[in-house]
Design brief:
9 helices; 0% strand
Length: 191
């Protein structure tokens, strides 16, 4: 919640006492992933690389493509922010392959990834590929119902899909996003 609110220093303070050696692999993945997000938010890009590499490793230990590629996408973002566009692109292409092979079906993740790839190619001077991925991002965006209720419904669908696959943590994350949007909509109607 604190990461979504961009309260990165506060989130970091809460995670600091947690020792990765004393928690499960799934919890260690979440810890390293969150630390990576926090470091990105605090503009500590090199520290983000360290934690996001660890998150990828934990995801591989769990043999969970979703975990691996979500961490890898942020790792690519960290490399991009360190001006290492080649490494950024390499990581983003691996995520792209997971989407293309149907291993990840989240359109919101795909939208972010296509945008990241477009930015990678743009910085590397391959404008044709950059434009291709910007168009893919726009196509994905067009496929989404962009009002709040549409996003809430999409998050609900994704959450239910994860639940059916037995990925309870991912299901909970998406269902909580859906709930937060629905609650926000209710608050706006009351005003």
């Amino acid at each position: 919640v604190l990461v979504q609110q961009r309260a990165y220093a506060q989130a970091n303070d809460l995670l600091t006492p947690i020792v990765p050696d004393r928690i499960t692999t799934d919890q260690a993945y979440r810890l390293f992933f969150l630390r990576g997000q926090i470091h990105l938010g605090l503009q500590e890009h090199q520290e983000a690389v360290v934690d996001l590499r660890a998150a990828v490793t934990q995801g591989e230990g769990l043999n969970d493509v979703e975990y691996i590629e979500r961490a890898r996408n942020l790792l690519g973002k960290a490399y991009f922010l360190l001006y290492n566009y080649t490494l950024a692109m390499e990581h983003h292409i691996r995520c792209y392959n997971a989407i293309e092979h149907g291993q990840i079906a989240d359109p919101v993740f795909a939208l972010e990834l296509y945008n990241n790839l477009a930015n990678d190619y743009f910085r590397l001077g391959d404008l044709e590929k950059a434009i291709t991925f910007y168009h893919r991002a726009l196509g994905t965006l067009d496929g989404l119902n962009r009002d709040a209720k549409g996003f809430a419904e999409k998050y609900m669908e994704i959450g239910k899909s994860y639940k059916a696959l037995g990925k309870v943590t991912m299901a909970r994350d998406y269902l909580m996003r859906s709930l937060a949007i629905y609650e926000m909509c209710d608050e706006q109607r009351l005003e």
